[in-house]
Amino acid sequence: MFKTVLFPIDQSRDAREAAEVVADVVKKYDSRLVLLSVVESADSENEPGADMMASPDAVAQLLRNAQSLFTEQGIQAETIEREGKPAFVICDVADEIEANLIIMGCRGLGLTEEGASDSVTNRVINLSPCPVLIVP
């Protein structure tokens, strides 16, 4: 059912908490797991709720740590690092790898329309080429 799962990660607590759900889904459906981290381009505006990744080295370390976490659970994970606006990059990568599911944490910016419409999560939900599972 979910042949390929995309898990966008950053340094947030929400991403760490979503990892357990990702592991469960990947094991249950014997899915291919792709970890994605997005470095915001220097000229792009910082999206609300997005953790600005300071350097490519920090992103590489984050991806290595996440990959190790899944390896310990017997899950092989591929990694991708990209630059750009997180929501758009996540959806582009999902399309490129033909993801069947995106799993991501939700920062819970609040229930106001302004907070919801500007969040990376909401943008991914609206632009994604596949289903999106949000882990609260």
UniProtKB/TrEMBL annotation:
<feature type="domain" description="UspA">
    <location>
        <begin position="1"/>
        <end position="136"/>
    </location>
</feature>
<dbReference type="InterPro" id="IPR014729">
    <property type="entry name" value="Rossmann-like_a/b/a_fold"/>
</dbReference>
<protein>
    <submittedName>
        <fullName>Universal stress protein</fullName>
    </submittedName>
</protein>
<dbReference type="InterPro" id="IPR006015">
    <property type="entry name" value="Universal_stress_UspA"/>
</dbReference>
<comment type="similarity">
    <text>Belongs to the universal stress protein A family.</text>
</comment>
<dbReference type="InterPro" id="IPR006016">
    <property type="entry name" value="UspA"/>
</dbReference>
<dbReference type="Pfam" id="PF00582">
    <property type="entry name" value="Usp"/>
</dbReference>
